[in-house]
Amino acid sequence: MTSTTHEVPKTVTIDAAAVVTTVTEVGRSVRPARGRRRLGLGKPIPFGRLLGVLLLIGIWSLVSATGLVDPRKLSEPWTVLQTGIDLIANGQLQDNIAASLHRAVLGFAFGVAVGTGLALISGLSRIGEALVDGPVQVKRAIPSLALIPLMILWLGIGETFKVAVIAIVVAIAMYIQTHAALTAIDSRYVELAEVLGLSRWNFIRKVVIPGAQPGFFLGLRLAVTASWLTLVVVESVNAVNGLGKMMFKAQDYGQSDVIMVGLVVYGLFGFVSDAAIRIIERRVLSWRRTLAG
User: Fold this and answer.
1) For 7, which of 47, 67, 160, 197 is 20 to 30 Å away at the CA?
2) How far apart (Å, rounded) are the C-alpha atoms in residues 129 and 119?
3) Could you tell me if 211 and 186 are in contact, meaning their C-beta atoms sit under 8 angstroms apart?
4) Angle between helices 243-252 and 92-123 (to 10 degrees)
5) Handedness of CA 221, 224, 228, 233 (dihedral sign)
6) Long-range CB contacts (< 8 A, 24+ apart) of 7-14?
7) pLDDT tens digits, residue range 37-76?
8) Can you give the C-alpha Rg of the chain in angstroms?
9) How far is it, in rounded angstroms, from Cα 169 to Cα 174?
10) Chain centre distance of CA 261
């Protein structure tokens, strides 16, 4: 008689959190090779986004030099440059920039915090979505600048009113993009988390939040632009300083060169802030391979 030995199968323990983490990190470990062609578009052009700006300045200089535009309506680039130097020399430009930056940064910070918080409440809970998404969508249909009379009635015409309006505009931009990203997580990851019995907290931390990061950064870029656009308007309401106030005051005296200085500064702030967010986005989302690189 030959005895048959039956081996007891070993129990295999699956770490659900580790599996999901591995799945979500696979893409991050793959980085496009430096200089690799992307979808036939070729290598990125160093400082390529500046080319369009330089072209626009060249056209502006050309039409100014040939007299195609009345300098009283659109000052020449060299006149604007000299005016900017004069405003810096007397300290007027620095003071106005400091006041505008203070309002924009505060409004942007509050708006990002509120918009992202509301998006998390709405995107991660059915009850939260029922309570939050409807009012936000209604507010989205109402132009934020149309709220200015009501905000003045509530908050007066001081700094609080200006920061609040900027924060509202930023919050809506952040909410829309972040909420859309949260509710668009790939269903395969959801099914995998359910099969592995992943806890809700680990699912949110390891799947939902990383998956929503592209939408979050898109919201940041739209929000920072919206903050500068709104700043121009709110500074026209009983402001004692700021770039917007400087520009509207120059309008009363027909000083197109001062207005252009303000526009150039706004453009620089918008361009630099957007570029900074792009740099952070590329580093955080380096695992994504997109047309933008």
Assistant:
1) 197
2) 9
3) yes
4) 130
5) positive
6) 14/196
7) 444 456 667 666 778 878 888 888 898 888 888 877 888 8
8) 26
9) 9
10) 24
**16 phi and psi angles, rounded to 5 deg:** -60, -45
Q: How many CB atoms lie within 10 A of CB 243?
A: 26
| Sequence-separated (6 or more) residues with CB below 8 Å from residue 280 | 217
Question: What are 252-281's pLDDT values in tens digits?
Answer: 888 889 999 999 998 889 889 988 998 898
CA distance 185 to 194: 14
CATH number of 74-284: 1.10.3720.10
Residues contacting residue 256 through CB under 8 Å, at least 6 positions apart? 71, 72, 73, 74, 75, 250
Question: Which residues make Cβ contacts (< 8 Å) with residue 220, sequence separation at least 6?
Answer: 112, 174, 277, 281
